[in-house]
């Protein structure tokens, strides 16, 4: 833990616990908040330690020591949301970014404003008077979701019958669908993107394990660097997964519409994994 800047160290440990939850990261975050004088946050993190790692002897010891000292000076709020939510206290984030229905917060005595945010940017607020050494239960109900506007009916335009020209017989051979090459190209691209997404996902998991190791050793500088790298890798993985799904859906549509008559030769496709993803190779005549 960075002795000269415990508040910054606490932020680092909380980020590490957000990305890769672990008992050492949460313990270090609680200790750093206490050292920085953020007693309400330190008590809240101690309560999370007891909830998440009650069977871990070191975590329980740290949590109980913090709460025995701070709880008499604070108010414990037990918040129940009707739907999964995140919380803000007096306009500042007071919970994990991951929504859930039940929260436990320790707050300083006095008038406090709780704000719960639900999906769709819906909010519910509650005014609370906190008393030192007391516990209070708060219920926050999500507002109803706005109703979708009904579709507007459009009157069809009047139909004018035009003279019908005599039918002309075309004796030329016609295609019965889209060329097979487009399906083969789409299928090959789907396979290539799938391989790339898998490789990038495995790299992201390796980074997550490295963050856990750095956090356990108290190396917050390395943990921060790995956290930024992990966020970038996760974003790339999500993009590749989305692209694979989109191209795969296109391939299915092309498979239905393709001309599968035997007079055309389908091109050959091969997929080869590389260090940065995958290589797709097409061959044959279209």
Question: What can you see in these coordinates?
Answer:
Helix 1 (6-19) crosses helix 5 (180-216), helix 2 (23-35) packs parallel to helix 4 (57-70) and helix 5 runs antiparallel to helix 6. This protein has 3 domains: 1-73; 74-143, Sandwich (Immunoglobulin-like); 180-283. The strands form 2 sheets. Strands 1, 2, 3, 4, 5 and 6 form a 6-stranded mixed sheet that branches. The protein has a two-stranded antiparallel sheet with strand order 7-8. The protein contains 6 helices and 8 strands; from the N terminus they run H-H-H-H-E-E-E-E-E-E-H-H-E-E. It starts with 5 loop residues before the first helix and ends with a strand. It is an alpha+beta fold and 286 residues long. The model has no long low-confidence stretch (mean pLDDT 81). The chain is flat.
